[in-house]
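User: I'm writing a tutorial on reading structure tokens. Could you give me a worked example: one chain, its sequence, then its tokens, then a sentence or two explaining what the tokens reveal?
Assistant: Sure. Here is the example chain.
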Amino acid sequence: MDGVNDEQTRPDGVRPESDARPGDARDAAPRPAEIRFFGTTWLRHDGGYALRRAAVAAGSLLLAAAGALVLRTAFQGLEIAEVGSFVSVLVVAGFAVCSALAFRRTWDGLTRRSDRAADSPGERSAQSLLLIGFIGSLLAYFFRSLVEAPGEKLRRAEYEAECERYERRRSSRTGNPAARGKARAKKKRR
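And here are its predicted structure tokens:
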């Protein structure tokens, strides 16, 4: 091999970015990123793409409905405990706000790349809100899967930009520079 041992190669045969070498055939062309539940079928809409989209839409809607039933049971527990209308309104408002925030964050995450770091304090504190508003996240996933595979638009734009950069790099490096040097040397001898 060319000096890279098998431990540095991922199971899918792609080398990590730090080991990629210019001109290496395996790392030359960009590869589409996989989307959960869809793999790379989103690129050409093949391999059961429509069926997968329908399954994701139905699954997320069913999970949202199941979550709503669980929340209803919890609210009935509050009524049985006779905590009062103020606490009941506060709990309902809290879940509504958290669901709205979770919907918005999930929708934004599926349509555009976030500038926020995943380990930032703001993101870590928002995780609990997203967990409480899980119904909003599931509904965002449902509505997005009616249009496309969730995250497809974002991944497609990134993939097309990567292909464009690859083509520019490839067209600017036509020919072998070492061969050009030999050809020039032959011309000088004549």
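What the tokens reveal: The radius of gyration is 26 Å. Residues 1-20 have pLDDT under 50 and may be disordered.
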